[in-house]
Amino acid sequence: MTALARTGRVLRWAAVTAGGLAFAAVLAYAAVSAVKPAGEVLAVPLSWLPSSVEWHNIVLPFTETPFARYFGNSVFVGVTVTLLNVVTCTLAGYSFSKFSYPGRNVAFVVVLATLMVPLEVIYVPLYALIYDLGWVNSFAGLIVPAGTSAFGIFLMRQSIDTIPDELLEAARIDGAGVLRSLARIVVPLVRGPMAALALFIFMMNWDSHLWPLLVAGDDDHRTLPVGLAAMQANNLGASGVPMMMAAAVLAMLPTVLLFLSLQRRFVEGVAMSAGLR
Amino acid sequence: MSRRDLVGATLSFPALALFALFAIYPGLRVFYLSLFDYSLTSPATFVGLENFRFLATDPRFHEALLNSLFYTVGTYLPALVLALMLAMALHRRMAGGGWIRLLYFLPVATSWVAISVVWRLVLHPHGLLNQTLGLDVTWLTSSAAAPWALVIMSVWKETGFFLILFLAGLSRLPREVFEAAQVDGAGAWRRFWHITFPLLKPVTAICSVMAIIRGLQAFSPQVVLTDGGFGTEVVNLFVYKTAFENARMGRASAVAVFMFFVLICVTLAQLRLFRREDA
């Protein structure tokens, strides 16, 4: 390798590292600010190391606001929506992939077409429907409409398509029914895509703000994004900053930890959402 | 149709029932509602195209459209360029490459509201941004700066997302292509412009369509950081306020119908880009 090429490599490495650290600095700043004494968070000049570490700031969201409730609601809604999606999408993917019946392709195309239309376009009539069903300020309004996804159905159908028909034929000759084949053959072979789907849906749901704000804005059903936004509005003074930073960092923890432990699946999920895998 | 196929058909029912009720029915109804003056509590009155006529002349709606456009272009053009540059640098093996990627991916794993809460502090006059760069900008309380504040934050949040997509795209390109170009003695720029970039075109097309859609969907940062003030009321926030604060659901539906056609155009443009790629 020439000296020039080597210098280029070192420069490139230095640039991407510096950039990465600048990106991460924002999160580090939030974490440090969460344990600073209230008077120090907006001090000039900026201090990265607090004069004393105020660990008790971390419990402020729990003692001063219904943060625990918001957090619990988010976990409950996120887990339920994820399970529902994995079940409905796997069943539909199996149905669309391995059985033939009239209307199958039409149904699949209609499902795919809805991929093009984001929630934003339909949320007014969707809200009116939830209102008519009496589901405003209920978990049902948060969970049921999010119970399946076009992306998930598409993903599961593609994955199940790769399973050879002969395998299912053999199981059938051995007397396995439709559901037994699903449980014994299909599911074990598409565990990877199912996991990526689950992770992706959970993350999307954890981030969801607009719909929960509409259908479950009351204190008992607020999820984290809605709750955090409300807490933010009530704590604009400097004394509220460490508490808000603690709350924000805690709100990020579940998905960031999931990401750190399941990085490959996460990256797969994002790439699959763009149809790249 | 065999009995087995009949059983198989029923397995799609849970998903299809949810779709019919919560996606297709509201999707059709939004067209219908756009022709009415309507709030949840009072009976709907048919007004024909009055809602569309109103929007065509409403300066607030036009401003929201322009703000959405500014936010989308301002955020996603730099984010895509940055992501592509980073992907080119990061897709090759390097010391600590995995860790460096992780730093860029982290913002993707956070939620918009939580991150917006954090950025309120970053953008404070005494916050991280001003103090690091030696600036004295009131980012969130001036019409000159607030739109840019949202753009800066969103570039930070979204670059990693597109970096993942570009890295996935690069990993699918055959290695021989890069090697052949290197052997032919083409310089790094020539290799990029004449080989890598054209081959990445499908990925770039997907990324740009996703970028436009994500840009037009923006809601949380505008709510948390500025509540739509100082030139940051985007279309989504306009719909929200029109439907739920002013109870003009017909008007909000008309905006949705308009956005529906915008998004259809974006998607069709994507399909065209792909077709050209195949030809």
From TrEMBL, chain A:
It is found in: Cell membrane. InterPro entries: MetI-like (IPR000515), MetI-like_sf (IPR035906). One of its GO terms (biological process) is transmembrane transport. Keywords: Cell membrane, Membrane, Transmembrane, Transmembrane helix, Transport. It comes from the Bacteria. The chain crosses the membrane at residues 67-94, 106-130, 136-156, 182-204, 241-262. Residues 71-262 form the ABC transmembrane type-1 domain. It is a multi-pass membrane protein. The keyword Membrane applies. It holds the Pfam family BPD_transp_1. One of its GO terms (cellular component) is plasma membrane. PANTHER family: ABC TRANSPORTER PERMEASE PROTEIN MG189-RELATED, ABC TRANSPORTER PERMEASE PROTEIN MG189-RELATED-RELATED. Belongs to the binding-protein-dependent transport system permease family. This is ABC-type glycerol-3-phosphate transport system permease component.
TrEMBL record, chain B:
The keyword Cell membrane applies. PANTHER family: ABC TRANSPORTER PERMEASE PROTEIN, INNER MEMBRANE ABC TRANSPORTER PERMEASE PROTEIN YCJO. Gene3D superfamilies: MetI-like. Keywords: Cell membrane, Membrane, Sugar transport, Transmembrane, Transmembrane helix, Transport. GO terms for biological process: transmembrane transport. Its main location: membrane. One of its GO terms (cellular component) is plasma membrane. Residues 65-270 form the ABC transmembrane type-1 domain. It is found in: Cell membrane. This is ABC-type sugar transport system permease subunit. It comes from Sphaerisporangium krabiense. Belongs to the binding-protein-dependent transport system permease family. The chain crosses the membrane at residues 6-25, 69-90, 102-122, 148-171, 192-213, 254-274. It is a multi-pass membrane protein. The keyword Transcription does not apply. CDD domains: TM_PBP2. Coiled coil: none annotated.
